[in-house]
Design brief:
CATH class: Alpha Beta
Largest sheet: 8 strands, mixed
Order of helices and strands: EHEHEEHEHEHEHHEHH
Distance between the termini: 22 Å
CATH architecture: Alpha-Beta Barrel
Structural class: alpha/beta
CATH topology: TIM Barrel
């Protein structure tokens, strides 16, 4: 499967990442990516940081740059921690749940949080929905993502032995989620969740889980810009 896209990356602006924007772009060029998204953690940067991302050149080293955020879902109503006027200025918005920003709820509450976030027209991707600390109904998640035109992420970091989430549970959760995605023909996107340049474009573990699930390649949007643009309208 062709893999030219990585939308989930963090630079030193996210405080717990270790490479600069330039270093990440150089790594993407070496990896052969064509589309690279910068999605800093919303809580790590000021609002002005995100509104000023417009100064980042759109094309660098032969790579299309998308300016974005990994916003936190902060309640079970699906609200995120950046206001819509700022989200509307960004190319890509990933909405995720993190232990530092929201207390895990019941499967029903967590599922409702994700589905409500999907209703926000500025949210394009649900980040790492594999986290076993936030149990969800994957059938409802896959159906909702299809209905709202939201991408579900297969997060490589979650599946990596060096990751900070429960790798084995993540594999199990993705296997369940992907079966429902196949049934509903719900597209997914692989994301590295890179916090250092050597991780940019690294989707090896995500690819393995997709292959093990016999997931249709045409439902993985990393493969071409035209397919990506259906879900990320600001992708040139």
């Amino acid at each position: 499967m062709r893999d030219i896209t990585d939308l989930h990356t963090h630079t030193i602006a996210s405080e717990h990442a270790y490479s600069t924007l330039r270093e990440m772009i150089q790594a993407a060029a070496r990896t052969g990516l064509e589309v690279l998204g910068f999605t800093e953690h919303a809580e790590s940067c000021s609002h002005f940081y995100f509104t000023n991302m417009r100064i980042i050149p759109r094309e660098q080293m032969g790579i299309t740059i998308l300016r974005g955020v990994e916003a936190n879902i902060i309640d079970h109503g699906g609200h995120v921690d950046l206001p819509d006027p700022i989200l509307s200025q960004l190319d890509v918005v990933i909405a995720s749940m993190h232990m530092s920003q929201i207390k895990p709820g019941s499967p029903e509450e967590n599922t409702r949080a994700y589905l409500s976030a999907m209703k926000n027209p500025y949210v394009h991707v649900i980040g790492h929905p594999d986290d076993s600390r936030f149990p969800v109904d994957y059938k409802e998640l896959a159906y909702g993502a299809k209905q709202y035109g939201t991408l579900l992420e297969i997060n490589n970091h979650s599946l990596s032995p060096t990751g900070t989430r429960d790798t084995e549970r993540a594999k199990e959760n993705y296997q369940i989620m992907l079966e429902h995605c196949k049934a509903y023909e719900t597209p997914v996107i692989m994301g590295s969740d890179a916090h250092i340049d050597v991780e940019v474009g690294e989707h090896g573990e995500a690819t393995k889980i997709l292959e093990a699930s016999n997931f249709p390649a045409e439902l993985v949007v990393n493969s071409n810009k035209k397919l990506l643009k259906k879900f990320i309208p600001n992708c040139p």
